Amino acid sequence: MDKLPGGSAPPKDSWRARWRAFRTRTIAKPGFQRWAAGFPLTRNIARANTKALFDLCAGFVYAQTLFACVRLDLFRILFDGPLAPDVVAARVGLAPDRAERLLKAAAALDLLARLPDGRFALADLGAALIGNPSVAAMIEHHALLYADLADPVALLRGEAGPTHLSRYWAYADAARGDPASAESVAAYSTLMGASQSLIAQDIVEAYPLRDHRRILDVGGGEGAFLREAARHAPGLGLMLFDLPAVTARAERAFAEAGLSARAKTFGGAFPDDPLPSGADLVSLVRVVHDHDDGKVRALLRAAHAALPPGGTLLIAEPMAGTPGAEAMADAYFGFYLLAMGTGRCRTAAELTRLLAEAGFGGVREVPTRRPLLTRLLVSNRLDSTDRK
Predict the structure, then answer these.
(1) CATH fold of 135-381, please?
(2) How far apart, in whole angstroms, are the C-alpha atoms of residue 19 and residue 203?
(3) CB 3.0-4.6 Å disulfide test: which of 73, 169, 192, 365 passes with 221?
């Protein structure tokens, strides 16, 4: 047996590791695959695995089918009822055969349903997109991600050069010392507001905002979350911290919602600028996973400094380790944030450790309606005596 450096023997593989190695060698054999596809006890498993592997290969085509449906506003066109392919073709500006090709593809993906008379109607997935315009906005936005993933190996090796996503998200440049202009933040802050709107109600339903006097939403964009918080807790004071070019847009949004008297905005960029004090609750809604550990530590320390002893910090975002959302956290966000140039999804345990380092305790998770989209961690600021 080969020795490790220092003369020690390598650890023996457990029986589980030996079994997995045997299983891998067996499944990799074409002869076994052919046999498993025909044997009654393994036939369904083999066929399911074949389909899963093909779906991985074809996933980009599926995503582009969805993108085409959104870009052509197909779901809204079918919202009032089923239509024949030639009618759809005229409305979306496609040749009849091309329109039918798209309709069949969407039906195969359960976005649409093909009726016995040949017309097409919305299926459940397509109907769900009508009620979630923020999802449609993200689907259109993904054109940038697809371009950045054209050569994923170059992206992983750091050889891809500046990415579309790093240029799109203005705060990434602001973090590098480049000020964000009003023009550069217009598109991203609107998209961020749309994504926050998707989860804002889940957060305010899960956590009792009425127990607090004033909330500071850090990286709050145009104030989508704070506007939902204002509806849920009428006596809650509102504070928003973001880049100056973004807070100017938030002020207009607050004015349009009749919240100018309750809402104050503060322009700045963390970690260089301190967070304003005066709130007993600080919220970070889909902010932490956008940043690397060093910046997250600085952000949490800034939140600690802004809060009074016993003040509350709320972190709401998708987290790694969420049952059923492994692909979302590790595959989707893993590559999205890599293309953006900063950030990663963390587990609740990792976030708890970072919170403890920054002087927060009593970390607890509050269940949300849709944990795949957002989970909620709540903690409290400890003073110097509490931390001893």
Answers:
(1) Rossmann fold (3.40.50)
(2) 44
(3) 192
